[in-house]
């Protein structure tokens, strides 16, 4: 999500769910899009650590919150134009239905047990009060 919020594009692309899943498993992404030229190296380092495919090498949520980029920028006052850009990026991502579907498929496939899948479905249904998905 950090990648998407800062750039407005997903880190992994493909023409089908299978292509996107293959790209995710390869773990190859880049910061070549023009939008990345204005993003700090610390932010890129943070994102790179979070997009590490190997769970053993990926930081936990607690470790991620201790990352230097988070620590330095969490106390700054929010710039309205930057906040609007982040919101616009999320809205733009919303239109990437294929990536969203592949992401949800991947997350679902990584759950450890049937019980966990059922619990996630229960929580989702509770949150989705108007049943719009």
What descriptive keywords fit this protein?
mainly alpha; 133 residues; Transferase(Phosphotransferase), domain 1; 60% helix
Mean pLDDT: 80
The share of residues in helices is 55-70%
Largest sheet: none
Count of individual beta strands: 0
Q: What is the oligomeric state here? A: single chain
At the fold tier of CATH, the topology name is Transferase(Phosphotransferase), domain 1
| Structural class estimated from helices and strands | mainly alpha
Shape: globular
End-to-end C-alpha gap = 19 Å
User: What CATH architecture label applies?
Assistant: Orthogonal Bundle
Number of helices: 8
CATH class: Mainly Alpha
Question: What are the low-pLDDT stretches, counting only 5+ consecutive residues below 50?
Answer: none
Q: By CATH's scheme, which homologous superfamily applies?
A: Transferase(Phosphotransferase) domain 1
Explain this structure to me?
The chain has helices at residues 2-7, 17-26, 41-50, 61-65, 68-73, 80-94, 97-110, 114-127. Helix 2 crosses helix 7 (97-110). The chain is built from 8 helices and no strands. The two termini are 19 Å apart. The chain is mainly α and 133 residues long. It is globular, with a radius of gyration of 16 Å. The mean pLDDT is 80.
């Amino acid at each position: 999500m950090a990648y998407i919020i800062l750039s407005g594009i997903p880190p992994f692309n493909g023409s089908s769910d299978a292509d996107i899943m293959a790209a995710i498993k390869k773990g190859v992404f880049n910061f070549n899009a023009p939008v990345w030229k204005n993003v700090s190296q610390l932010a890129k380092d943070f994102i790179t650590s979070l997009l590490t495919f190997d769970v053993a090498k990926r930081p936990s949520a607690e470790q991620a919150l201790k990352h230097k980029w988070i620590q330095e920028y969490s106390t700054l006052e929010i710039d309205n134009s930057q906040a609007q850009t982040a919101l616009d990026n999320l809205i733009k991502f919303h239109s990437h239905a294929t990536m969203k579907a592949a992401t949800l498929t991947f997350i679902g496939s990584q759950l450890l047990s049937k019980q966990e899948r059922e619990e996630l479905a229960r929580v989702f249904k509770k949150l989705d009060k108007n049943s719009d998905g």
